[in-house]
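Problem: given the chain below (144 residues), write out its structure.
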Amino acid sequence: MIDGGIEIDLDEVVQNIAEAEVVSLFFPTLRRTLLIDTRTNEFAGTFVKVVPMAKSGGDRLRSLRKLRPQFSRPESITLIPWDARVASLITMGVWDTIMQRIDCPDQAASCFEALCAIEHEEHRAAITGERYHTLWSRNPIDSD
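Solution.
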């Protein structure tokens, strides 16, 4: 499947989300990650949160340990780069797979809305030139 010229192996993405205990779905353009932890115990349910992108898998494990200290190291973690638009998670069916794995739909919906807002702000900044630099700039024409 291609979204805006980006090739995505949906079957592999869905399989990884369906099988991993922890999913780190990261959005390089937004510099954010949708962190999904499907582990539960008698005190804590599943967990979904938008967090800053980690520099490495080790950094992600350390941050997960701080966020979920009641759990030991996960048996399986998958890191999925998502270069497509946030809304494509729904249109491509990935969001349904995420929702099947968690018991906190309101938390997930809030995270989705937050990612959409971050994406909207990033697009606005790109259009207005905030935090972005032009590759080519126009030189004013001499009016001599």
